[in-house]
Amino acid sequence: MRLALLALAASVGGAALVPTATAEVPTAAPVRGPIVQMFQWPWESVARECTDFLGPKGFGAVQVSPPQEHVVLGDQGYPWYQDYQPVSYQLESRRGNREQFAAMVRTCNDAGVEIYVDAVVNHMSGSGSVGSGPGSGGSTYEKYDYPGIYADADFHGCRRDIANYQDKWEVRNCELVGLADLATESEHVRTTLTAYLNDLVGMGVSGFRVDGVKHMPPEDVGAIFGAVQNVPGTGARPYVFQEVIADGTTTAGEYAGNGDVTEFGYYGVVANAVRDGSLAQLANLPERMSLPSDQAVVFIDNHDTQRSSPILTYKDGVTYDLAVAFELAYPYGTPQLISGFAFDDPDAGPPAEADGTTQAASCDNSAWSCEHRRPIIAGMAGFHGAVQGTELTNWWDNGGGQVAFGRGDKGFVAINREGGELSQTFQSSLPAGTYCDVMSGELKDGACTGTTVEVGADGRFDATVAPNSGLALHIGAKL
Description:
The chain is of the alpha/beta class. The N terminus is likely disordered.
């Protein structure tokens, strides 16, 4: 089976043998700006982008790719998924070493951008990596034998691929495409994983995206992450959000006691509506989701869906940008964006040197897709921060592909996915004044580089929105 399926689920469980704990659940989105997954970006490139763009534009957090030592699959062209096969917990990956990682965390924190690590805690390397050693940090290993870390007894006894996804025991105990499935119910495994996570938090990491959670019992996840220390300097609990691809056997809500959960239903509903020009159906979006807003992390695409089940991706141009704009404007869930690299082969790894180490990421290089720098998406990052905590107000639609809505008295957005112009007098709750449309420009040195809109004392304004475009006003971009 193709290893590109790895990150779509990652597996394990069993009866708890040691006391369990539940991670403390954040009561609100942890940051004002959105989370952006800088997929496969090297540490030095992430640090530079935090300072130069992400912090100034209002992005709240970066989700970085797994930083631990991983297999090196040179005979397979160094595919992206090798990073999801750990062989140790030393911070030596193709994106950089421990010192570079620590410097990135400091730099991004100084820029007001938190770092969330993509945490692989369910498994180690797989059958497809046998004979591929050493790892990215030079470690020798064999499947089920990682010297000084894990031995044979630390893995589940069901050493075959999951065959029946309707059997919860099998989903949590057998192997996903040959990956060595950790016995996360054991005290040694839990202690080892928590030590790795504490090492990261001690460097200033503020949270974790937990990979493949449905393949672990909720009590195992709670015990591991519940034992992680508070973030130094802030005393806050690390933010935890869990990748759960729900189905008839596993629900997202089973894991909500440990932290937030990815709402996979969201991207299908929203991306299809934007693609098909049926935006009016999104008025009551929360009613169609399985999780309440304060427990959900939402996305239009991520590194898995881009490759396995794409609806809209960076390849779809402004239609994709408008879907992300809706995600950042509508008050449901914590938004997660992605910024990765261009690909045609879904297995392909990032731009790399001859030895497989990742080249510096730059948005001047078309090999990096840099979705976060697209003008509509970058402008809406600031919109999201400006409207946090406000209700949906003043909804309007034409029954099809044209919608508009407000966020209390802090913002207003209109999106047009039809072939004709949307010319309308809109009713908002914004204070009177002149606003910069952040989908077409930005407020810079007291002037707007795009379109301006005059809002009257009654909150009303006239605007024309071109086909396949949008308009967004918020109080942080008021002249």
